[in-house]
Amino acid sequence: DAGVIQSPRHEVTEMGQEVTLRCKPISGHNSLFWYRQTMMRGLELLIYFNNNVPIDDSGMPEDRFSAKMPNASFSTLKIQPSEPRDSAVYFCASSPRTLSYEQYFGPGTRLTVT
Amino acid sequence: GQQVMQIPQYQHVQEGEDFTTYCNSSTTLSNIQWYKQRPGGHPVFLIQLVKSGEVKKQKRLTFQFGEAKKNSSLHITATQTTDVGTYFCAGPKTGANNLFFGTGTRLTVIP
């Protein structure tokens, strides 16, 4: 089992540019979560999907952030336009079921916006 | 709103000493999970507790779920340098299918 795969692992971009983060969940898992981690705010849930359907996006900071899950094996998190305050580590996690089941995290994407 | 708090925020211990982190929720939890994140790494699931008063052990780690299901603790006996990292508790959001992660306790073990 390859685990959750994220790409890129590191991204450095200039303010105003579009950034797309990618995630491949563990095969067979039907829940997918996007988190953001910073020293100041800790680990924050941005959005999660169940069976490819967005269930709760209340954690998405603002309209600059959008996430999609076109199929069970792929999801994207897009930031457009990016801002320096978006600099953080973004984790994708998947779970075999919603609620009460452990989450498996990917290695994360470290985003730096200059 | 619903909150999950952890104390302490940081803990430095000498190798061989014990370590405990505490997790407190503002609401009753159906279950609680614990994760460990090594420096530069990603959170890794350790264990889940479901029953009131439940105690589970993993080698030198002991996890406990409070009787009221609003608090939990993780105790490490005789810490080793491999225990270094941040320990998070996480509980399900009331009426939803996602987790609230605690603020984490960063453990440093001094050789």
Describe the protein's architecture and organization.
The complex is a heterodimer of chains A (114) and B (111). In chain A, the strands form two sheets. In chain A, strands 2, 4, 5, 6, 9, 10 and 11 form a seven-stranded mixed beta sheet that branches. A four-stranded antiparallel beta sheet of chain A has the order 1-3-8-7, with no helix packed on it. Chain A has strands at 5-7, 10-13, 19-24, 31-38, 42-50, 53-56, 65-71, 74-79, 88-95, 104-105, 109-113. Chain A is an all-beta fold and 114 residues long. Chain B is mainly β and 111 residues long. Chain B contains no helices and eleven strands. In chain B, the strands form two sheets. In chain B, strands 2, 4, 5, 9, 10 and 11 form a six-stranded mixed beta sheet that branches. Chain B is globular, with a radius of gyration of 13 Å. Classes of the chains: A mainly beta (114), B mainly beta (111). The A-B interface holds A 31, 33, 42-43, 45, 48, 50, 55-56, 91, 93, 98-100, 102-108 and B 30-31, 33, 41-45, 48, 50, 88, 92, 96-99, 101, 103-104.
Keywords summarizing the entry:
heterodimer; A: mainly beta; seven-stranded mixed β-sheet; 11 strands; B: 111 residues; mainly beta; six-stranded mixed β-sheet; five-stranded antiparallel β-sheet; 0% helix; globular
The main pleated sheet of chain B reads as: 6 strands, mixed
Q: Which outline of chain B best applies?
A: globular
- The count of strands of chain B amounts to 11
- Termini separation of chain B comes to 41 Å
Largest interface: A-B, 21 and 19 residues
The proportion of strand residues of chain B reads over 45%
Q: How is the main sheet of chain A built?
A: 7 strands, mixed
Query: In terms of structural class, how would the helical and strand content of chain A be classed?
Result: mainly beta
Overall radius of gyration of chain A: 13 Å
Average pLDDT level of chain A: 93
The best one-word shape of chain A is globular
Classification by helices and strands of chain B: mainly beta
Low-confidence stretches of chain A: none
Report helical residue fraction of chain B. under 10%
Helix percent of chain A reads under 10%
Task: Report strand % of chain A.
Answer: over 45%
Helices and strands of chain A, in order, run as EEEEEEEEEEE
Indicate the mean pLDDT of chain B: 93
H/I helix tally of chain A: 0
Report how far the terminal alpha carbons of chain A are from each other.
Answer: 36 Å
